[in-house]
Task: inverse folding
């Protein structure tokens, strides 16, 4: 059974940084595309950053220049480096993976940006 486990969320002050991780299991799982989404209270889930197979990395306009998505295939892990965090970035962040036409989601990790 495929599992995506996120970590790295927490409370940070405006201007701070966090690094989210998403580890996929089992080790034999191979995703053709991985992405990070987020959902704030009362809002729809939105794409933050995506690494589609064979295409350029996509970023939401609101995070361009501040967030960076990366992937370590050897560890079956995708990361989201988030810098200069702002209160509007407060949300539950979800990892997403696509493999053989199936879409998988992690359980989410809370990111709260507040002074």
Result:
């Amino acid at each position: 059974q495929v599992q995506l486990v996120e970590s790295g969320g927490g409370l940070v002050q405006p201007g701070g940084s966090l690094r989210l991780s998403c580890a996929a299991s089992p080790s034999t799982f191979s995703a053709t595309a991985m992405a990070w989404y987020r959902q704030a209270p009362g809002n729809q889930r939105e794409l933050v950053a995506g690494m589609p197979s064979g295409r350029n990395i996509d970023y939401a306009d609101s995070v361009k220049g501040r967030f960076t998505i990366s992937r370590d295939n050897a560890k079956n892990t995708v990361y989201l480096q988030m810098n200069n965090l702002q209160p509007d970035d407060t949300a539950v962040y979800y990892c997403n993976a696509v493999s053989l036409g199936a879409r998988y989601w992690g359980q989410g990790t809370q990111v709260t940006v507040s002074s």
Observations:
- Residues 76 and 108 are 17 Å apart (CA to CA).
- The chain has a mean pLDDT of 94.
